Amino acid sequence: MARASSGLAYPERFYAAATYVGFGGSPASSLSSLSRFPNDVALLLYGLYQQATVGPCNVPKPRAWNPVEHSKWTSWNGLGDMASTEAMRLFVKILEEEDPAWYSRVPDSVGGPVIDVEMHKPELESATALDSTNGNSTLEPKTIPPENGIMVETQDKGVVMEGLGSVGIYDQWVVPAVSGNRPKPRYEHGAALIQDKMYIFGGNHNGRYLSDLQVLDLKTLTWSKVEAKTIVGSSESTSLPVAPCAGHSLISWGNKILSIAGHTKDPSETITAKEFDPQACTWSILKTYGKPPISRGGQSVTLVGTTLVIFGGEDAKRNLLNDLHILDLETMTWDEIDTIGTSPSPRSGHAAACHADRYLLIFGGGSHATCFNDLHVLDLKIMEWSRPKEQGVTPAPRAGHAGVTVGESWFIVGGGDNKNGVSETLVLNMTTLSWSVVTTVQGRVPVASEGLSLVVGSYNGEDFLVAFGGYNGRYSNEVYVLKPSHKSEVQPKVVGSPASESMAALLPTNASRDVEPDSETAPDVKMREIVMDNAERATLNIASEDANRQLVEAIKTEKEELEAALAKEQMQNLQLKQDLSEADSRNIELTKELQSIRGQLVAEQSRCFKLEVDVAELRQKLQTMETLEKEVELLRRQKAASEQAALNEKQRQSSGGVWGWLAGSPPDKTDS
What we know:
The structure is a single chain. The chain has 7 helices and 31 strands. A hairpin with a 2-residue loop joins strand 7 and strand 8 (about 210-215). It starts with 11 loop residues before the first helix and ends in a 9-residue tail after the last helix. Helix 3 (about 40-55) packs across helix 4. A 6-stranded mixed sheet has the order 11-10-15-14-13-12, with no helix packed on it. It has a 5-stranded mixed sheet with strand order 24-28-27-26-25, with no helix packed on it. The chain has about 675 residues and is an alpha+beta fold. Helices cover about 30% and strands about 25% of the residues. The chain is elongated, with a radius of gyration of 46 Å.
């Protein structure tokens, strides 16, 4: 009997796939079963199987004269330190792409995997993988054969289903085993975390906006769908779904979720703010005051204290924006903010974060033609934009990425540059403004996608980044988890090194060194603090005050130089404007003169045409006159000939009469 493709959870599903491929029997039978796949796919399946059941490759490279074993070793070794759970997921995913109906042909009973003993014989100690990042020993859920040949699991299978606790490796993306009905693949959706539950709302799939609300319980990694209702009016509830949307922002606020802005099929003129109550499973439209911003999608919405700061985005007519608005969540009042300094260029698909409850950081994003990798900082107290000096690696341009903050660290995941997805996961120390790479993924995986979502969960006191969805050529509904080992550390002397000067200028005086806030102290500017002894703290405070005074003087001097340079540039700009105005005036005069000359030329051309017509008529008349002259000449000649003939005849007659009289002949009577 055919079974549903989601009938088994991991790792049982992986074992079923391995049995179907042929890894459930002898090594010879597995190789013969793999022969029905292309060589590259067969080698990749082999490497993923070894990675999932044994772990990273730790056997010597085979001799070159054995090409089969050499290719198998290369495939396995190329997977590096990939977690066994991720290898299981990729194994099944590749099999589904090659043979979508494989699950219906798997026998009802599947056995455990058989390791290819011809290639390696790992020891039992390989079950313990030493994490190279922090030096801690963590157990991966993998199966290995001990010396007696009996299969022993290094972790109980239930560990795979213990939510985020199943991720033991640091600074690498892992695909955990999830259960329940997965949401439809999507991107440009919204995600928010409340009480260890990740809520996913809306998004875009194949150009269609979605309106469903899905929940992933991070304790059990189980998906479920929320059948939410929309409140219409003051108290009446109906079963009408909320309008589908994409490019919106979900924000956790207390025990509720706010949905701000977003693209819809029938866009409104201004931004719509909605609220979801997880207890009542209801949506409601929030009533706001003041002048709301125009509707948009792809904006950034950042929670700063009791306010939401909205920047940029793209309106319904695809016009890019760089305006700044604030929504006070206590009074629900909108306020458009006028800033000073050079604001970021209009963009959408960027990421934003708040540091020390005072500084708004904007990174990346894109226009219709290009993607950005610039970093802008807005001081929310004086509303001034700046472009600080950055340290470390240079981020690749990207848009559609996601970002979350953990203490002083700002993690940036995914995004794309209109050609490819960005493979590296970055982290920015928001105090020193130093970029570094956390990890880099290989191939077209969902965490290298545009429009993915990212939230921060916790388990046993450790933070976990949870990514979902995205688009990089195809839509995704995969869940990826990363356990960061990165810990932000503030340098003791802010001015002691050039690397920290950029952010030191942006931090308040008392923010150069922080301590962990407890129940007795609650400073206005809350940052992650480093515990140190009293002597070090006192020394640091003195050094920090001196450094801050020197820094203020340096900033004042630099400000004066910048103001002078700005005044010079403004004068040059004014002169250029005057030159441009004069050039425009000359251009207008020349244009008018040219038009006048063109008119005269047209008139002359018309007169020439008339003259040509007259000349043609005169030529025709001249030809007629020449013909008449020839006829007159001919008539004259004929007349002259006639006259001559008459004269000759008259003379002849006269001469005949005289001679006749002389001869005695009588004259002609007829003449008389």
